[in-house]
Amino acid sequence: MGFSGRGIEPADGFVGDGFVVRPLVPADVELDHAAVMASREFLYHWEQEPPYPPEDFSVADNLADLEQMDEAHRSGSRYTYSVLSADESEVLGCVYLLPNDDRMYRSAHVTSHDGTDFSTIDATVSFWVRPSTWADGFERTLLTALHQWLRDDWSLERPVILTNEHLDHQIATIESLGLVRRFDYDRDKDMYTSHAYA
């Protein structure tokens, strides 16, 4: 069904404190590629699809990925946003929204920590930022802004923030906002158990 089948349209982006969030488009390919390669070691664990991104991951490879994400965004099956510096000269990270019936979850074993059925969740939200921005607290700044954006600009009732058990820094950031771990999910192909917070 995806988002479009439920009438959940993508929100516009927003301007934050020193950054911009807007839909990711293929024209961002070079800036996005630079961010991916600068974050490669982190993304290896975040993506859980080793060896992605590989050492020889090219701009052309990245363009193929961005074109797929752009098509998914336009069709309403998944929504992807780029996080850029205020002047849009540098990509700082990405934000991904998936519906609860996405193919990613169809083969997953889901464990609820509060008795809530995963089917009542209308979106999972995952994100990453360049590790070079962590020391300045940007990850927390972005997540705080995303939390407000999801509440104010989307027609979502129960989104959750997704991460995985290996990403200690991201878990600490999420929990610092008072969000509580609601679900775990495991897939045979994944290296780590994923955690969902709300």
Description of the structure:
This protein starts with 13 loop residues before the first strand and ends with a strand. It has helices spanning 29-38, 40-47, 59-75, 103-106, 138-153, 168-176, and strands at 14-15, 19-23, 79-85, 91-98, 109-112, 123-129, 159-164, 181-186, 194-197. Helix 1 crosses helix 3. It has 198 residues and is α+β, with helices and mostly antiparallel strands. Helices cover 32% and strands 25% of the residues. The chain has a single domain (4-197), classed as Gcn5-related N-acetyltransferase (GNAT) (Aminopeptidase).
Topology diagram in text:
Blueprint: E1 14-15, E2 19-23, H1 29-38, H2 40-47, H3 59-75, E3 79-85, E4 91-98, H4 103-106, E5 109-112, E6 123-129, H5 138-153, E7 159-164, H6 168-176, E8 181-186, E9 194-197
Parallel strand pairs: 6-7
Antiparallel strand pairs: 1-2, 2-3, 3-4, 4-6, 5-8, 7-9, 8-9
